Amino acid sequence: MELFRQTNIDFLRWKWWAIGASWALILIGLLSIKLHNGLKFGIDFAGGTQIALRFRQRPDIDRLRKLLDTGNFGDNGIQRYEAPEKNEVLIRVQQQKKEGRDITAEVLALLRQGLGASADPARLDLNIQGRDNLAARLVAADPDRVAGKPGTNPADTYGRVAELIIAHRSRLAIFQSPADVDGVPGITPAVKDWVKANTTAGPFVLLSAESVGPQVGADLRKTALWATATSILGMLVYIAWRFRSLPFGVGAVVALIHDTLITVGLLSLFGREFNLVVVAAILTLVGYSVNDTVVVYDRIRENQRSPKKEPLETVINRSINQTLSRTVLTSGATMLVVLALFFLGGEVLHTFALTLIIGILIGTYSSIYVAAPIVVIWKNVLGRRKLAAVSPAPAPRPAAPSPAPRPSAPASSPNASPGKRKKHRR
Amino acid sequence: MSKRLRWRVLTILVVVAGIVGGYVATGYAHARKEWIGPGRPPLSEALKRGIKLGLDLRGGIHLVLQVNTADAVKAERDEAVETLRAQAREQGVTLGAFEFPSEASFTIATVSDEKKLDEIARRWLPDWTLGSAGGRASFVLKDAARRATEDNAVSQAIETIRNRVDEFGVAEPLIAREGSDRILVQLPGIDDPKRVKDLIKNTAFLELKLVEKGPSTDKAQLLPPDGKIPADMELIEGKPDPGQRSTNWYLVRKAAAITGRDLKNARPSKGQFGANSVSFYLTAAGAEKFGAFTGANVNRYLAIVLDKRVQSAPVIHERITDQGQINGSFTPEEANDLALVLRAGALPAGLTYLEERTVGPSLGLDSIRKGIAASVAGGLLVFVAVVFYYRRAGWNAVLALILNAILLLGMMSLFNATLTLPGIAGFILTIGMAVDSNVLIFERIREELRAGRAPKTAIENGFSKAFATIIDTHITVIISAIFLLQFGTGPVKGFAVTLMIGLLISVFTAVFVSHTVFELEYGRRQHIDALSI
Question: Can you give the residue range of the structural domain that contains B416?
Fold first, then answer.
C-alpha cells in the first residue's frame, strides 16, 4: 500500500500563507496567556499543596469545600479527578505564608473530623494508615500468639500480614468497613477478628500528596527555562555543524521556537496546567521537531549534490515531496502511540500526551512550512544583496548552497559513494 | 549463508541473550533479597523484580529538606561564648554585657584587659577574628570555619536521618545531599507521610535539668522579686496536656545534668497505670554523672526537657544511676518513635521541608496498570499499521520493534535505571522513534525500486542512504534527552534515561537487525522478482 506515489506538490507556493497562519497561531496563544494573566503553573512551579483522595461514597464537593474553608488555608480549590464513578477528588491549597505548617496532615485531619470519622486514637483508620502503623499495632496485640515461639519474629510475621491487608485495600480501591478483611487471603481468623474489633474504615484513602515550597518552585522554574533554552541552543549548534550552514541551523531553530510557542500557547488556551511533566513533553517535542526537520534537510542536501543546477525552491520542493510519505507515516505512527497514552495512560499522563499531540502536529507542519521556507527566504534575501553589491552582471547562481562541495563532505553518509560501498560488501 | 552474515546473526544472538540473561539475573538478585520462602524464588518473581520501579509506580515518599545551618553556627557561637567566659574568669578579666548582632558574631561592651583577652582569643578561639577598640571587643566567626560548621551540620544531619530511617526499617532508602544545604530522602513503600516526616524532623535534643521552681501557669510567680531570670536559670514551657488550655512553666537550671549524648539505648515501655512511656539507659560516663547529680538532689524535681519543652518533671526519690523513664501522654506510635529518635541521636540543626511527594500504593498500582495498557495498545496499533502498509517487510519492522522493547527493558535492568510513569511514556515514545527508522529505510527501498533498481540493490541502497538520516535524527533527540537530565527530579529524569537507552537500542535494531533479517530473507536467492514492501 502507498499513500503518496511520487507527489509533486509545490509546497513553497503557499509559504507566505503558512507564515501568516503560524503568526496567527502564535498570537492566539500569546493572547490566551495574556488573558489568563500568565501561564497556569502547577504546584511544581507555583508552590503549594495538592492532595488526591478516593472516597468511600460519591463525595459532596460543596460540603468538602465548606470544610476546607474552615481550615484557614487561604486560597484553595477542589475538583473531581479521573472518572466520576471512581469517587476521586483533587484538593489544592496555595503556598502558605507561615512556614512549618504540615498542610497535608491538617487537611486530612480536618476532613476526617468533618466527615464524622472515628476520632478514637485506639482504633486505627484502615483507609488512611500505612503498613507500618498497622504492623506495630498487630505486634503489640499479637492475635496469632507468635511472640516467643522459636523461629518466628513477630515484626516480620505481622509486617507481612499488614502488607497483605494494605494490598487488599489497593485491590478493593477502598475498605467499605473493617469486615472487608474477610477477603484478605493468607491471614488467620484471629487477625481478622482483631482487625474487625480494633479498627475503623475512614471516609477516604490518600492516593497522593505533594507539597512544594516557594524556593523549590522558583528553582524548578529556573531549571525548566534553562533546560529548554540550552536544548534549543544545542540543536542550533548541532545542525549548524552538521549541515555546515547557518541558514539551515537558523531555520531549524526558528521552527523549534515556533513549535514551542504555539504548543505553550495552545496549552494555555485549553486551560492546561504547566508542570514538570509538561516541560518534559516540550523538551521531547523539541527533539521530535528537529528530527522531522533534519530528515527534510538531509534530503535537500543530498539533492543539492546532484550535478543538475536547479533553483533552490525546486530542490526544496522536490525534497519535501520525496520525504512526504515518510513524514506522514512516522507522524501517524507516533500519533497512534501518543493517542494510546492520551486515552489509556490516566490523569497524570493526560496533559503530557496532549502536549505531544499538539507538538507532533505542529512539528510536522513546521518542518515543511517553517524550516524549509526560511532557508529559501534567507538565501534569496542574502543572495539578492550580494548580487547588488558585487556586480549587476549575471553572477553564478546565488541560490547555490553554502560552499559544501561534494568531495569534502565528510559528515555525509559513509556509504554514499558507490565504490566505497562495493568494497565494504566484500 | 555468507561468513559475514553468519557473524551478524551471531552478534545479534549474543547481544540478545546477554541482555535478557542479565535481566533475569538481576531479577533473581533482587527477588532473593526479599524472598522468605524455601528454595529459590520462582522465575515469575524474578521477571517482576528485574526493573526497579520509581516511587510514583510503587508508592513511597520523596522529601527534600533544608538544614537550617544557622542553628549549628549559633551553637558554635554559644560554645565560644561559654569558653570565653570561663577563661576570662580564670585569668581575672572582667567582661561586660554580651550582645549578639548575628548568629556568627558577638560583641562585649567593656573589657578590663584587652591584651589578656587577645591572648585568650588566640589560644582558645582560633576560629574567631577579634577586633577591639576603646574597651569594646567584637568577635566574628571566620568564613572558612563557618563553612566547615555548616558543612558538618549537613553531613551530621544526613547521618542522623540515615540512622533513624534504618531503625524504622525501610528497604532501599535513598538519602543524599543536594546542593550545599539540602537533603533528598526517598523512601519506597512507605505510605505514612505524617509519621515519617515527624520522625525525620524531630530534633530529639534531650536534656535533664534540675527544677528550681514550678510548675506554674503564671510565669511571674516563678521569678524572684526583681522579676529577672537569674543568670544560671531559664524558663521552659511544659508540653501542653490535651484538654488543658494554658501551659505550665518551669524555672530550671541552665546547666543540664545529662543530655542525649549520654544515652546508650532507649526503648518504649509501660509506665505507671500501663501508660506508654520511654525508658532510657545511660553510658558508663553518663551514669556516673547522673548518679552524683541525683544523689545530691533527692526529693527535688527533675525536668525532662525534649527540644526545649518539658515533657515531665518527676520527683527524684533516690540516687539513680544508669536508667530512667520519660512519661507523657504518648500513643504507642509516639512512644515507639521517641525511643527510636533517642537511639538514633539528635539532629545538629533544625530541618525545613522544601518539597514533599507521597504516592499511595493504590495509585501506584493504578498507574502501572494504565501504563501497561497504553504501551500494549500503542504497540499493537503501530504493528497493525506497519504490517498493513508494508506487508511482508512490515513483519520485519515488527520484529525489530519487539526486540527493541525487550532490549530496552533488559538494558534498564542492567544499568539499574528506575522505571517511572514518565519513563513508561519514554518507553512508548521510543517505539515511535524506532518505527521512524524503519519507515525511513523502507521508503528509501521503495524509491530505489521505483527508480528501477533490482531488489537486492534496492535493499542495499535503501539501508545505506537512510543510515545518515537515522543517525542524525537519533542524535538530535539524544541531545534533547541530555538536557532533560538536567532536571534532577526523579520522574522526569526517569523519562530522559529511558528515552536515551531506547534510542541507542533503536539504532541497533533498526539498522543492524533489520538489515540482517532482510539479508536472511533475500540474500540466498539468486533472483528476486519482487519485494513485498
Answer: 3-30+41-58+361-522
Residue A333 near residue B432 (C-beta atoms within 8 A): yes
ipTM over 0.85: no
Whether this model's pTM surpasses 0.80 = no
| Cβ pair B396, B514 in contact under 8 A | yes
Cα angle A411-A413-A414, degrees, rounded to a multiple of 5: 90
Please state, as a whole number, how many other Cβ atoms lie within 10 Å of the Cβ of residue B218.
Answer: 10
Beta-carbon neighbour count of residue B85 at 10 Å?
A: 14
Q: Are B502 and B408 in contact (CB under 8 A)?
A: yes
Distance (Å) from the C-alpha of residue B404 to the closest C-alpha of chain A? 15
- Asked: is A11-41+213-390 a CATH 1.20.1640.10 domain? The reply is yes
Distance, CA of A109 to CA of B147 (rounded, Å): 41
So where are chain A's domains?
11-41+213-390, 48-211
**A71-79: long-range contacts at Cβ-Cβ below 8 A with a sequence spacing of 24 or more?**
A71/A106, A71/A107, A71/A110, A73/A103, A73/A106, A73/A107
Rounded-to-integer distance, Cα B225 and Cα A310, Å = 105
d(C-alpha B436, C-alpha B441), whole Å: 9
Give the CATH number, domain containing residue B114.
3.90.1070
B2, burial (CB in 10 Å: exposed 0-12, middle 13-18, buried 19+): exposed
Using a 10 angstrom Cβ sphere, with 0-12 exposed, 13-18 middle and 19 or more buried, the burial of residue B79 is exposed
Final residue in a domain of this structure, among B146, B165, B181: B146
Q: Cβ(A251)–Cβ(A374) under 8 Å?
A: yes
- The alpha helices in A203-311, defined as continuous H runs, are 214-242, 246-269, 276-304
Our count of domains for chain B comes to 3
Q: Hey, which residues does B131 pair with through a beta bridge?
A: B138
Nearest to A330 among B168, B359, B439 (CB): B439
* B41, B32 contact by CB (below 8 A): yes
Pairwise CB contact (< 8 Å): B190 & A137: no
Q: List pLDDT tens digits, range B84-132.
A: 888 888 888 888 888 888 888 988 888 888 888 888 888 888 889 988 7
Task: Name chain A contacts of B352, Cβ cutoff 8 Å.
Answer: 99-100, 213
What backbone phi and psi angles, to 5 degrees, belong to A228? -65, -45
**Structural domain includes residue B175:** no
In a shared domain, residues B370 and B289: no
Looking at A1-102, list the stretches that DSSP marks H as alpha helix, in order from N- to C-terminal side.
Answer: 15-35, 43-46, 61-69
Q: Are A281 and A352 in contact (CB under 8 A)?
A: yes
> Closest partner residue to B374 among A129, A242, A345, by Cβ?
A345
CA distance A23 to chain B (A): 25
Q: Which residues of B touch A239 (CB under 8 A)?
A: 476
Per-residue pLDDT of chain A (426 residues; tens, 9 = 90+): 666 666 778 888 888 888 899 999 999 999 999 998 888 888 888 888 999 999 988 888 888 888 888 887 877 788 887 777 788 899 988 887 776 678 888 888 888 888 877 777 778 888 887 777 888 888 888 888 887 777 778 878 888 888 888 888 888 888 888 888 888 888 888 999 999 888 888 889 888 898 888 888 888 888 888 888 888 888 888 888 888 888 888 888 899 899 999 999 999 999 888 888 888 888 888 888 888 888 888 888 888 887 777 888 888 888 999 888 888 888 888 898 899 989 988 877 888 899 999 999 999 899 888 888 888 888 888 766 655 554 444 444 444 444 444 443 344 444 434 444 444 433
Same domain? B496 vs B478: yes
Q: B312 lies in a domain?
A: yes
Residue B352, domain CATH: 3.30.1360.200
Interface test with B, best of A163, A174, A206, A331 (most B CBs within 10 A): A206
